[in-house]
Amino acid sequence: MESRLPDINTEFINYRNEVRMALKSGNYRAMIGYINNLNALLPDHYQVKISTEEYNKIVKSKELLICPGCKKESNQDDIKVRNKLNPPFELLLSGNEYEKIWTCTACKEEIMMKNTEFMIEKLSKPHYFQIVPDPPTRSKSLTDMGISNSRFKILMQDWTYNCMAEIAHQESKYREEYVPKDTEFAETQDDNKLEEGMVVVEQ
Length: 203
Ligand SMILES: [Zn+2]
Fold this sequence. Notes:
Layout: H1 9-25, H2 28-40, E1 49-50, H3 52-61, E2 63-66, E3 73-75, E4 82-85, H4 88-94, E5 98-103, E6 110-112, E7 117-120, E8 131-132, H5 142-145, H6 149-177, H7 183-190
Parallel strand pairs: 1-8
Antiparallel strand pairs: 2-3, 2-7, 4-5, 5-6
Helix pairs in contact: 1-2, 2-6
The protein binds zinc ion.
């Protein structure tokens, strides 16, 4: 099936090599360009999105809430955050009319959001989001200047390896799901002589 993919295989290999070389030489600007080119070889819905904002949203959705009572974890998707009217005494103390609460999925206790600890769900590796954060940048600000060159190089390497793994994952998905539209396939379908294990996609 690989050979049937439109002629992008060579380009994939070329851009991947360019990324590798640019990373090695520290030419990050060019490297990001090559990564964008590599990504652009994939059809739209396979492309990896590069956005810190959207990446953070996904990570946020993987946050688990820890019940202070039973210490069990609840998934964000399984709970509803509600507003509960504070009794007059609380209102006086906190100045808040409402308190954000949720119900523990394990012990069914009502928990105040402010008493809740969070942890990020441990995702089994490898996992792919099809989204990566923006590449690390260094501006002229004082805090950024505190990042040494070697530290920045490590941040850039981590970002690149993660990004390339995401793209490679999409690439293999594309290969797997790719249904050739050539005549050979159409004829086979007409003859009703589908090979065993061949998947027919219903239109
Ligand atoms: Zn609980």
